[in-house]
Amino acid sequence: MAFSSVSADIFRAYDIRGVVDDPSKGLTEATVRLIGKAIGTVALSQAQTDIVIGRDGRLSGERLSHALCQGLLSTGIGVIDIGMVPTPLVYMGAHAACASGVMLTGSHNPPNYNGLKIVIAGQTLSGEGILDLYARICQGQFAIGQGQYETKNIIPDYTQAILNNIQKLNLKLNLKLKVVIDCGNGIAGKLAPALVEQLNCEVIPLFCEVDGNFPNHHPDPSRPENLQALIQAVRHHKADIGLAFDGDGDRLGVVTNQGEIIWPDRVLMLYAQAILAKQPGAEIIYDVKCSSHLSDVIQKAGGIATMSQTGHSFMKAKMKSSGALLGGEMSGHFFFQDRWYGFDDAIYAACRLLEILAESPVSASEVFAQLPNAISTPEINIALPDAQKFIFIEQLKKALLLNRADTDAKLDINFKPIQMITIDGLRIEWPTGWGLVRASNTTPNLVLRFEAVTEAALFTIQSFFKQAMEKIEPSLRFDF
Ligand SMILES: [Zn+2]
């Protein structure tokens, strides 16, 4: 295979992802073998001797894992294959064994996708690190050796670690929580229901058989349509809570006993309060898509609220450098460094939620009703080609930042923000709400989100963004 036939498009901001067996733009076994060679070479250059590999429940997983393994072993690095597991187990395995790991997963993408999430010497690869793998593949310069291969089942260790961590569940009130768990036929089904049962809960499993065809719904709990079956099941069984996992078990969705979806920024408020009650002054990190009420809740509870750019690799790096005890993203990635290891682990996060609910004398819907809520939109995607999206954001920033200094002359809009945040796209905050526009790192889209105290304020903020964006790119199509 010519090295140049590997498409640059599959090397993305947080991971590698592509359509399986698409020879021009995707992941073939030959491509994955070369990626394995590149990863092995980089890991060896950082004094790594072994690397943990795991895969999700996709149909292409076994043969791509085999190809990955061949590539890695050919560089001389040792491979510890932990088999079909949720992504957090690869992070856990890497943390415990050798500091490096590769998870073969298409996450929540359609069945014909697959991809790789990579940790080398304790660092999650992103941006430059991922592009460096591509450069090495193009140059064809790989280490040569013969690594040792071994298999290991770490599910018992992982499960026991969580049982030791959350052991007091339900002892206080002596009540059994009734929990519906929807794994969307993703790999979390292999262990999450059994684990939660061992925590002394009654589990009603929904789509927990691992099936790479995803025959029921997409394993993506960030979209309301994928939570409808869970909502129905929670109501039908009169359950205390509904939990949903994405395809590889690193993102969590939550539904209350009344069937209300609680978006991750409000779940994060609850985690923050629980941690800050025991660890006053702790830092908590969240991404730019989260509610402005989140920082209020954190500060009121005596914590330090830090906003970060979106992306699980960026979040993990920031968790490490800051020593924050908790992190979370609007996408449903939660990072506990309080009593856990700081990587994103939706299964552990689900257990921490059960722990909070088990200690609460009131229902989940009453627990969440105590947290502030705002009128907000879900994520809104507006198509813009990859080649244009980042340039557009820079132009918009320039126009609005200049506009501000220029007393509103350029846009003819009454524009008096209290804050302009530019860590990831542009988030503009007013006393009545905020709007965000950023370039998606994974799709040819601009991503927008809005929040406000009233519907009228929400409309005003959306109109402002629409007008400002149309001035720069008149071809944009808005559906608000
Ligand atoms: Zn995922």
Describe this structure as you would to a colleague.
This protein is of the alpha/beta class and 480 residues long. It has three domains: 3-152, Alpha-D-Glucose-1,6-Bisphosphate, Chain A, domain 3 (3-Layer(aba) Sandwich), CATH 3.40.120; 158-369, Alpha-D-Glucose-1,6-Bisphosphate, subunit A, domain 3 (Alpha-D-Glucose-1,6-Bisphosphate, Chain A, domain 3, 3-Layer(aba) Sandwich); 375-472, Alpha-D-phosphohexomutase, C-terminal domain (TATA-Binding Protein), CATH 3.30.310. Helix content is 37%, strand content 22%. It contains 14 helices and 23 strands. The chain has helices at 29-45, 61-73, 87-98, 127-139, 155-165, 192-198, 228-237, 264-278, 292-300, 312-322, 346-359, 364-369, 386-405, 455-472, and strands at residues 16-20, 26-27, 50-55, 78-84, 101-104, 113-120, 123-124, 149-151, 178-182, 202-206, 241-245, 252-256, 261-262, 283-287, 304-308, 326-328, 334-336, 375-376, 380-383, 419-421, 426-430, 433-439, 445-452. Strands 1, 2, 3, 4, 5, 6, 7 and 8 form an eight-stranded mixed sheet that branches. Strand 6 (113-120) and strand 7 (123-124) form a beta hairpin. Helix 1 crosses helix 2 (61-73) and helix 1 (29-45) crosses helix 4 (127-139). It starts with 15 loop residues before the first strand and ends in an 8-residue tail after the last helix. Bound molecules: zinc ion. The site of zinc ion has 6 residues, from loops.
